[in-house]
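Whiteboard transcription, Tuesday session. T.W. wrote the structure tokens on the left side:
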């Protein structure tokens, strides 16, 4: 076995309320993985009540010690150059899930996924969507049925206030990545 770290693409979409939990996992993963950060154009540039975009970008660059891919042009070489061993999309919004399920690659994150999947390598999705049990349920089902696509176990984050919302248990990302690299889906997928 070699001492080389696994090359992990860590793609972040605009579910801003989960950024703190997601970036905490990035910090943990940086010990065992070489991380190439990828951000959707929205996640890269939008200030929200959850924090300023520049503050998140600085924190991510500091953790990963790599520049952030945030354009379609920069994401395109991921497949042809076989830059990654595994790709994680965390958080993965309903919008991104719908695009992945439909084969649409019009953002840095969706093109990174498409480019990576062409090599038959694993993609791990950490869902964060308010309509996961409504409009996006069909899309999640399509992705659950795809080869080399794995889900971080998820739960309803607010069953009474948002009964159709799901969010990944971000603390289960490390185990899900290990399982995906072995071709296994972490079980149970639905927790809580």
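and on the right, the sequence the group agreed on:
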């Amino acid at each position: 076995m070699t001492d080389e770290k696994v090359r992990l693409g860590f793609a972040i979409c605009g579910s801003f309320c989960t950024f703190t939990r997601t970036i905490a996992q990035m910090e943990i993963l940086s010990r065992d993985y070489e991380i190439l950060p990828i951000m959707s154009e929205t996640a890269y540039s939008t200030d929200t009540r959850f924090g300023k975009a520049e503050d998140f970008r600085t924190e991510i660059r500091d953790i990963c010690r790599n520049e952030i891919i945030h354009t379609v042009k920069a994401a395109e070489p991921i497949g042809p150059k076989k830059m990654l061993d595994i790709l994680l999309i965390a958080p993965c919004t309903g919008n991104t899930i719908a695009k992945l399920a439909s084969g649409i690659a019009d953002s840095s994150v969706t093109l990174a996924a498409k480019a990576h999947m062409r090599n038959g390598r694993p993609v791990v999705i950490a869902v964060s969507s308010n309509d996961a049990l409504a409009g996006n349920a069909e899309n999640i089902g399509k992705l659950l049925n795809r080869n080399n696509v794995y889900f971080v176990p998820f739960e309803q984050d607010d069953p009474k206030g948002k009964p159709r919302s799901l969010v990944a248990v971000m603390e289960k990302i490390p185990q899900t990545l290990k399982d995906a690299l072995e071709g296994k889906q972490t079980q149970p997928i639905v927790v809580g």
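Someone added at the bottom: DSSP finds eight helices and seven strands in the chain.
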